[in-house]
Amino acid sequence: MLRSPAKGVYVAGGAPDTPHQRVLLACTGGAAGAVASFLTCAALFGLWAFPLLPHVTVRRRSSARSRLAVVHRADLDPKDVTMVGIIPCTTPARMLVDCASVLAADELQEMVDAAFVRGVVTYDGVLTAIARASARPGRKGIPMLLRALDAWAPGITHDSVPEARLFRLLVAWGYPVPQTLYKVFTDDGEFVAEVDGAWPDRKVALEYEGALAHAPSKHAHDESRYDAVRRVAWTVVPVSKADLRPGNHDRLRADIDRALRRP
Question: pTM of the predicted model, to two decimals?
Fold first, then answer.
């Protein structure tokens, strides 16, 4: 038995109702060339939760209406369209450009960080998507997106979203920009360890203690690494998830201040 959620679209009666199915129906049941976009595209790439109603983008002059989706209009460059399985959608870079117009600054920063950590976007790729999306200055959300990209400028790499959040806090607090994923060596050139962030001129290292990378079973290994770094006259400042919570930064800032003032 078939059901028809939209004109010309049919679904087997026993087929499970899943987010991916709803997105595919929204694309096939709307205007020709409709692609998943905005928060729905983010969800397809694992960067956001699926919204209740899928978001799709159709050509600007399309008169399409759909009860299956939130419809956006834009003339997408072919370079900004891709596929997730059999679902057509915007690329992650174009998705960030679109989502910048609907998200708050902290939400956008988290999405940008997650996209870079997952490796689905590049710094230059997002910049070129911005250029294709708007030939004129002033597109909503673009200044906010450019600020969110600062943490991922060429030469800056992070292993996780919390590490990127730590970087943003340090910059906001007025500290010098630390070098990320810095390799510590002895004076003789022997490798000691790689740390999440560092101020080499002050020999201060930052280590984010994530739940998986620094699980209880790895505490002994962590302490061994920290001791090795300290033996070459470096100071290690560990950073926990709790240190990054709003209103809970005092201990971390005091430790960093003390370390950077150290003779």
Answer: 0.78
